Amino acid sequence: MITLKPDGDLSQAKYIGSEISSYLAYQPGRYTIKEINREKYVTTEGKILIAELPTRAIPKGNADETLLAHIVVSKYVDHLPFYRQTKIMARVGITLAESTMNGWLDAICKLLKPLYEHLQKRILESGYVQVDETGMPVQTSEKPGSTHKGYLWNFHAPLSRMVCFLYDKSRGPDLPDKMLKDYKGVIQTDGYQVYNTISKNSADIIHLGCMAHTRRYFDRALDNDPDRANHALSLIGALYKIEKDAQSSDLSTKERHNLRLIKSVPILDRFKQWLDEESMQILPKSRIGEAFIYAKNSWDKLINYTLDGSYLIDNNLIENTIRPVALGRKNYMFAGSHQGAERAAMMYSFLGTCKLNNVDPQQWLTDVLLRIPNHSIQKLDELLPNYWIPLK
């Protein structure tokens, strides 16, 4: 605090209080040196005694866990590529190579791999998984001067607030097939055919559609056929109004289910009847035709959210988890390799789950990096962001 006295002779004046003005200020990030002083002793027999160093995330590295967490969070939450971070550090007199940061990130990912696999397992065990995919440009030696379009596949457990990204070189069915091979429960997706094939091949999967995607198709058709598009949007709007009212009323799962049976199902019945009646009068390749085809092809999945009060009407929550990936693409444009894309998938998984659970990612990652080298493989739940309790 800065204290200012009025001008003039105050020797005969009486102090009667003060007025405090507050201003938001900023100090650039501070880097410090953390030292561990290990005292040495010698016994009467001449034996040297010295304490063991604490277990570190990177045993022979000279980076503290707080710094490791900072550079990871800066890259994947604040979207600062390593070359920008090195420039920021250089302004305060710290010289650090990008290659050093990449080496640290590689070591962190190897350390966290068991926790990453455990996160995948817990998401599948949740019984309700939303699935989506987004592009990830990757620089490879096979395509000099251009990038390979890989994909991050996103598996989100909306009820237990966990998200996991997995990288694959293609948008084909191999990765989701492998991930969901033995899955039993609910999946919720858009209308991409790969997901339809997965659910058709398994009697243990209930497939929910996404009403938000249906709404987007009709919204895009407003210029093409405003009357039909507006009618569809009004019906969809009524369905969302029911969901909004249920949420604001804080209804139980059973109450929400009953509300949908009473109010939503009749609207859906009218919607389906209207789609069937009007579909013969429109051009299939027009914008309104595409909206009709999407809605009709997805219909059985679109209405499945009314089967249970815990199911969601759309896939919007998973799309929210993908937004950091899109922001990252704008800042560092592409992953430097397929391995780099796999590391990004891991970090987006952990830090995205932190966000879903309102957990400070810097605090979480620092704590986990300190604990995981000696942590029991049987107690990995304790380190997941949605179960995590920091050590005091």
Q: Can you give a write-up of this model?
A:
The protein is built from 13 helices and 7 strands. The protein is an alpha/beta fold and 392 residues long. A 5-stranded mixed β-sheet has the order 5-4-3-6-7, with helices on both faces. The chain has a two-stranded antiparallel sheet with strand order 1-2. Helix 6 (211-220) runs antiparallel to helix 9 (287-297). It is globular and about 95 Å long.
Topology as a string of helices (H) and strands (E): EEHHHEEEHEHEHHHHHHHH
Distance between the termini: 31 Å
So how many helices?
13
Strand order of the largest sheet: 5-4-3-6-7
Structural class of the secondary structure composition?
alpha/beta
Strand fraction band? 5-15%
For the biggest sheet, the summary is: 5 strands, mixed
Task: Quote the average pLDDT.
Answer: 90
**Helix amount:** 40-55%
Roughly how many Å is the radius of gyration? 28 Å
